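Lab notebook, bench 4. Still working through the backlog of constructs that have no structural model yet. Next entry is a single chain of 306 residues. Request: give me the structure tokens for it.
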Amino acid sequence: MRKKYTEEDFHRLAKQTNRARWGLTIGFITWCIVAIIIESRGSEPEWIALPEYTEDGRQIVAQTEGPLHWPMDKVDLYYNSTGAPLDAGTLLAYSIWTWGQRVGLEITYKGLTYETAVDGAIVINWQSFFAMWAEHGSYEVKGYASSRYYPSTGELASSSIYLRDDLIGSPLLAVSVHEHGHALGIRGHNTDPNGVMYDTAPRYALTASDAALTAYDYSPCHAELSPAGDVYLPGVGGKGFTLSPVDDYYQITHEHDTDLYCTGFSGDGTVTITEVRGMDETYHDAVLAPINNDSGWQVVAVGEQP
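Model written out:
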């Protein structure tokens, strides 16, 4: 005899069906959430130290597959002034300016922060001698940079620069410019001993060989005014390039890359170049004369000063 289903039987069957459907739905949703978590963790930016340090304070970097880069060739920069020495702002401003002049990266200063790291930005921080010594086990460490990046694309997610708070003047400027280079994506160091990114060079004048270590286009030909008021081409202290006579003018050739050159006019120990850039003013058709037997250059005359 065929069973007769009552209204209660239909209610019971409906509940069983709904429980089965909800079980499948919950299982599917759970699987999706787990997959999203696994995928997001796989694409999380990784922390790297730029550079790492040996016990004697020399800098080493294990990863040398090429430079990292900021998305869209632009990055924001914040300043954490906690523990900062007096008058450090001018030197840091020059560090940002000179890198911005040399490479095709837009660096925008966004202001002060109390954070040591900001997503999508560079943050400049300060550490005491003892804190830096405790962290790296060496009293020779004067600064370092730590970054997060996406291994699959080489894009930087955040960078933090740490400078020792007892540095002043040229030593601070040299360390600042060097660590900014790492924060912009340079993983290793320059093999050119005249370069700022050389591991032991106490210099702050960027060379074209420094800029070539980045992932960005770079400008090798214009000269710059340093904070001390002297002029340098993409060499350090007047070095890093040679002057070769070509017809009635001189060709300025970069020693580290003979395919890079600029042109200028020379006479009586001076050389005239098209452009000298400074943070406050720019000179055109500037006549440069050497200082103290090739230790640098200075502007002695200009054809135009806007």
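Notes after review: Residues 37 and 247 are 67 Å apart (CA to CA). Residues 46-218 form a domain with the Collagenase (Catalytic Domain) fold (CATH 3.40.390.10). Flag for follow-up if needed.
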